[in-house]
Amino acid sequence: MNRVLPTPTFDRRLAHKRKKEPQDLIDLIERKILELRHADRPDLIGQRKSGPLHGTLGIPLIRGTRLLYAVRSLGSARLVILLRVCSHKETYKSLSDAEQFYLHGDVTQVEHLPTTRR
User: Fold this and answer.
1) What is the pTM of this model?
2) pLDDT digit string (tens) for 55-110?
3) Are 58 and 92 in contact (CB under 8 A)?
4) How far is the CA of 30 from the CAs of 6, 10, 20, 56, in angstroms?
5) Ordered domains of the chain (ranges, CATH)
C-alpha cells in the first residue's frame, strides 16, 4: 500500500469542492485516491504532464475536473503526493513553492507541508 500525502492546496481545494460540487464528483475523487493508495504502480494511472508540470501526473475526472499528483519512491515504498484537484485550466497554472517542495524536496519525514499562500 502506498502512502498518500495531500498538500495544503489539495486539502483546501477539495474542501471547496465538497461544498460546491455534486456528490458523484466527490465520490469519484475519493475512489481515485483509494486507487492510488492501493495501486502497485500509481505512476501508470495518470497521464504524464510536461513543461512546468514535468514530474506530475493528471487523472481526468468528470465536469472538467482533474486530479494532479506526483509519485516519489521511498526505498521500496511509494509516496503519492496529491497536489491539486482542479479544472483543466487551473491544472496548468504554475506550481506554488510548497508544491515544488513536494516534487523536488526531501519529503521522507514530512507528514504535512507548511502552507505557502500566493
Assistant:
1) 0.80
2) 889 999 987 899 999 999 877 789 999 998 988 777 666 666 556 656 666 555 55
3) no
4) 12, 13, 16, 19
5) 3-104 (3.30.2310.20)
